[in-house]
Amino acid sequence: MTDSHSDLLQLKNLGAASVNILHAIGVNSYADLKHMGPVEAYIRIKNRGIHVSKVMLYALQGALLGVHWNDLDPRVKQQLLEEAESVQASQS
Q1: Alpha-carbon distance 27 to 31, whole Å?
Q2: Which end of the chain is more exposed for a tag (fewer CB within 10 A), N or C?
Q3: C-beta atoms surrounding 86 within 10 Å
Q4: Within a 13 Å sphere around the CA of 87, how many CA atoms are in the beta-carbon half?
Q5: Looking at residue 2, what is its pLDDT?
Q6: Considering just the CA atoms, what is the radius of gyration of the chain in Å?
Q7: Angstrom distance (rounded) from CA 21 to CA 85
């Protein structure tokens, strides 16, 4: 296991499967995820044809904040969804 792999595994909400998905889109560390942001990472995952639910979006945000995704404020979850939907619509 590489240092970057364990770096991501130390974050809340992220297990081995999520980390492997993040590696597939070029996210190899916390710094990469922070730079890309949860919405862009989520969209890249979806654009690769990887089937994930909106929970992945919440999990990515929670990982950056150090909180369980279920503890995110509902308004934050809604804002993330709206932003992701807006970006996806503009790509169509």
Answers
A1: 8
A2: C
A3: 11
A4: 14
A5: 47
A6: 12
A7: 20
For tokens 């807006």, what's the residue?
A: 86
Amino acid in the structure at residue 24: A
Residue with token string 């996210």? 27
| Tally of domains within the chain | 1
pTM for this entry = 0.91
3-state secondary structure 26-83: CCCCHHHHHHHCHHHHHHHHHHCCCCCCHHHHHHHHHHHHCCCHHHCCHHHHHHHHHH
pLDDT in tens, 21-73: 999 999 999 999 999 999 999 999 999 999 999 999 999 999 999 999 999 99
Q: Would you tell me how many other CB atoms lie within 10 Å of the CB of residue 27? A: 23
Q: Domain containing 72 — which CATH number?
A: 1.10.150.20
**Host domain of residue 32:** 3-91
Place of tokens 């999520």: 18
